[in-house]
Structures are given as structure tokens and as C-alpha cells.
Amino acid sequence: RTATQFCAEIELISTRSRLLNKMLYKIAVCALIAATHGAPTLDAAATVSDGHWGSDELLEAVEHDAPHGRELFPMLIRAHKVRASRDRARSASHTADVARAGEPMMSIGDKNPAKTLEMLQLNDELNTVVKSDSMCSRRHAMARAAGLAAGLAMAQVNKPGFAAATKMVKLGADNGQLVFVPDEIEICKGDSVTWTNNKAGPHNVVFDEEAIPEGVTQESISMDGLLNDEGATFTKKFDVAGSYAYYCEPHRGAGMNGALTVA
After folding, report:
1. In this predicted model, what pLDDT tens digit does every residue of 183-209 receive, in sequence order?
2. CA gyration radius, the chain
3. What is the rounded distance in angstroms from the CA atom of residue 91 to the CA atom of residue 89?
4. Residue 7 annotated as catalytic
5. Which residue ranges in the chain fall short of pLDDT 70?
6. Which of 174, 191, 192, 212 can bridge 187 by disulfide, Cβ–Cβ 3.0-4.6 Å?
7. Annotated catalytic residue: which of 30, 75, 136, 248?
8. So what's the pLDDT on residue 28?
9. Annotated catalytic residue 52
10. Is residue 68 annotated as part of the catalytic site, yes or no?
């Protein structure tokens, strides 16, 4: 072999060695993120493989987060922050080039700022699901997160009634007992309750005027008449938090009473 051939072979071996070291380095970075963040590493690994992040950036992100505790999906935010920063840098460079050329300028921000905001909100909602002590806050956050994950727009999931639910209550037990089933329920502000005439009717729903929140009138939430047919329903939405007591007027003497808590 000539000296030139020998040098070429050495260079080829050196190049392959550098590529192998780079691959092992990326694998080690992904393993470090996996140990630190758990489930979100799938997203992180994808960004490494498709070239959106460099290994140094990933290590910096992990080291930066180490003393600050753990969030549910921190990598979702970082991926978009890194990409947004790069887009802004490219936009600034493009704007400068256009200005030098004397052409009309347009503002070019992130490629998809709406999507970035949706991912930021999704991260916040998921953290609320994990950290909040309020059942209603957790439920509303979960509903909004599910909507965003399904591709709904922020404007849609942030509507007041998006996360509202409806609880069902039977009037009369299946065995004919004169009770509400269940006789105690808890809902969130903005939720509704539907009472269904089940057995041993007729029934109705009348709220105790002395056991409802201040500012709520008995007439505005009670039934006017009776439910005679099985399967007939009465639905009411509740927007004022507090405790409510109600009863079935024809069977109040038999102890047909119910309680509602609006959180």
C-alpha cells in the first residue's frame, strides 16, 4: 500500500470512530433524561434523532432542571422553547437581510405560535391534574388537557362550559323505596343535575328555602309541578357554590330528602 492509501484508511477509521462516539453520546443523554423525567423522554428522544436538539442543549436542560424539582411534562415546553428561539433567530436574520436589500419587511415569528401556546397550556393543565388539591380544578384541567390533546383549539377548551358535567339522580329506588338515589351528591360550579322519575311516583324536586346559598331563590331552582311518568326528567344547572337541601314534596313525610354540594 502507498502512503496515501494508508492515510486514507486511517482517516476513514477516525471518521467512523467519531460517528460511533457521537451516537453513544446521544444514547447516554437520552438515558440521563429518562432517569430524570420519566415518560416525556419519548418526545426528547425524538427531538434528538431528528436533529432539532443538540446533545449539549439536552444536557443543559437536564442540568438546569435538576435543582428545581420535577414537573409532569417539562420536555414538552423545552422542545418548543428551543425551536421558538431558533425560529426567532432565523426571523431576525431574515429581517436584517431584507432590510439591507431595501425590500418591504414582514414580521415572521414562530412557524406555528398557536401550537406552541397550546402545548404550553397542555403542560400547565397536566401539572394542575397532578398537583391541585381541588377536585373541580383537577377535573376541569383534565378535560381541557384531553381536548387539547385531541386537537381542539384553545378558544374552544377555554369556554366556561367546556368542562361542565351532569350528575344523574333517580327519584325512587329500583325496589320502590321512597329515596333519592344517590341522596347526596357533589358537583362543581357550572355543572347540572338531572333527576329522573324512576319508581313509586309521582315525584318532584323542591329546595328548602332555608338551606340554600345566599342570593339563590327557591323558585329559581325548584320544580313547578310533578313528574308522573317513569323516565321523565328535570334538569337544573348550578352556578353558585354552597350547600343545598331538597326534598320530594309528596313524600317528604316519608323521609325522601336529598343534599347537594356545589364546589
Report:
1. 999 999 999 999 999 999 999 999 999
2. 31
3. 5
4. no
5. 1-111
6. 191
7. 248
8. 47
9. no
10. no
